[in-house]
Amino acid sequence: MCQYAALELECQPEIRKFFKKLVKEHGYIKTEPTERGKRELDLFHPSYRVKKVTKFLSEITNDEIFLDIEQNLNLGLITFKIDLEEKESHFIKLFEKYQKQESNNSESEK
User: Fold this and answer.
1) pTM
2) Residue 95 and residue 77: Cα distance in Å, rounded?
3) Where are the domains of the chain?
């Protein structure tokens, strides 16, 4: 049931727009070397710059770094995750926004 609700919410244009903006403004990427990456990604390796990255997505203006991350991920040299800072506060804002819209809609129907 939750998967169905999540799919329904995902199709809502306002929610998609909100999350795209949220990830662009508050998302960050974090990479960590695997055991193999710890051995191979030394100072002289061309991909050393992605060995340990913790940056906000808005700070990364060079697409090459994403390609470098993907390449090293496929080679098994690093792991990565994209996450949001202060997730809970963003979801509370979203909930309050839609709760307010829902109450406005119900008042206009009267």
Assistant:
1) 0.64
2) 39
3) 2-109
